[in-house]
Design goal:
Elements: E1 9-11, H1 15-44, H2 49-69, H3 76-92, E2 99-102, E3 105-111, E4 115-117, H4 119-138, H5 145-166, H6 169-186, H7 191-214, H8 221-230, H9 241-253, H10 277-310, H11 314-338, H12 356-373, E5 377-379
Antiparallel strand pairs: 1-5, 2-3, 3-4
Helix pairs in contact: 1-2, 1-10, 2-12, 3-4, 4-5, 4-6, 4-11, 5-6, 6-11, 9-10, 10-11, 10-12, 11-12
């Protein structure tokens, strides 16, 4: 008789995600130094100013990622709603004396040691933790119109609060988009979402065409962005200056680029180390460099998708799905802006663009995803 072999349970940890993340951050640091050395030397007298600040936040972020990955993600259920309310409170502080205005935008809070915090990044994590808790708590009620309306209400309120107080439309879109993605993931039907998405896209296109044809003289800066996007050559010296210079950079790079550090357009593009860094990557490393970036993000998203599919429960799966949606939306919006597919939104490229708050909270999100992966078990 055969002896029944005992199946060995293997605990999983996504080292592939860690490796991709480290490679992406290192690549981002190299490109940040190449992109920002000229402007940092002019503004601060130190060509490594942006690089050193970003390196510091990368080290802090990776340390935070390791600590967060050791936390049992089920504990977030207890703190999900308080975290949501706290994020709303933080956004409110931008309208107090603690708020800091940078380049005409009040989106930051002053911190000690001349640091600053962008509370909208906290809202993203709060939504990623709270909406799955709400969906799990509601059960089958989440499939009804009333249930979906309730969830969209929580997500919509956070998005509207960010938009009203910080005038940050791109972050509001991302926050509401994350909410919609998690509802889509948990809902058993796909057809209604396809119909809604098609209708919304048709409405947006119609509104954009109307604005382009009838409001060319508007003074509203959002409408001016849309008009500049529709006619970039006509507004190349004003609203579309950054976009047009970015397109010149992409076009001049060819397939293999001019070589690392040899970009000419980085001296002309305003704030190039932020949302337009991809254009310099295309100029210095060519289309090949851009393909490498897209492959890295595709691999990162694939690992997140793998964790979400194999998570031990619905809450863990939805949390990682929210992180997936955040990264995917931010990459799509940034690439759309750089290629002039959509109007300029100011969305940065995750892990590559300059931004201490952004890299820190993105690393925390990766820590949460790794924490979920630690609970995955396979039978050998």
């Amino acid at each position: 008789m055969r002896k029944n072999k005992k199946r060995k349970i293997i605990r999983y940890y996504d080292y592939s995600l860690v490796a991709i993340l480290i490679f992406l951050i290192c690549f981002g640091l190299v490109m940040l130094y190449s992109t920002s050395s000229y402007s940092a030397l002019e503004d601060y007298g130190d060509s490594m100013h942006y690089f050193k600040r970003q390196l510091f936040f990368c080290v802090v972020g990776l340390s935070a990622m390791y600590i967060v990955s050791k936390i049992d993600y089920h504990r977030y259920k207890k703190w999900a709603k308080p975290c949501y309310m706290f994020s709303i409170f933080l956004v409110s502080l931008v309208r107090t004396p603690l708020g800091k205005n940078v380049n005409g935008a009040s989106r930051w809070i002053k911190l000690p040691f001349e640091q600053q915090l962008q509370p909208a990044e906290v809202v993203k994590i709060a939504i990623i933790l709270f909406i799955p808790f709400l969906l799990c708590q509601m059960g089958r009620e989440a499939y009804s119109l009333h249930g979906m309306g309730r969830v969209l209400g929580w997500g919509g309120f956070a998005a509207a609060w960010v938009l009203i107080l910080t005038d940050n439309l791109s972050t509001a879109v991302i926050v509401f988009g994350i909410t919609c993605i998690m509802i889509f993931v948990v809902h058993p039907k796909t057809a209604p979402f396809v119909v809604i998405a098609t209708g919304a896209m048709s409405l947006v296109i119609t509104v954009v065409l109307i604005i382009g044809n009838t409001m060319a003289t508007s003074k509203n800066f959002r409408l001016r962005r849309i008009i500049s996007w529709l006619n970039p050559e006509q507004y190349a010296d004003r609203g579309a200056y950054q976009t047009v210079q970015g397109l010149y950079a992409i076009g001049s790079g060819g397939f293999f680029g001019k070589g690392l550090g040899n970009s000419a357009q980085k001296m002309l593009i305003p704030e190039v180390q932020n949302d337009m860094i991809l254009s310099v990557i295309c100029e210095e490393l060519g289309i090949f460099g851009a393909i490498v970036v897209f492959v890295l993000f595709a691999m990162l998203l694939y690992r997140l998708l793998f964790i979400a599919q194999n998570a031990p429960d619905l809450y863990g799966s939805l949390v990682v799905s929210g992180i997936f949606g955040h990264i995917a939306l931010q990459v799509i919006l940034n690439v759309g802006v750089v290629t002039n597919t959509i109007p300029n939104t100011g969305v940065t490229l995750p892990f590559i663009s300059y931004g201490g708050t952004s890299i820190l909270f993105l690393a925390v999100e990766m820590g949460i995803a790794l924490g979920v992966s630690r609970k995955i078990k396979f039978e050998e």
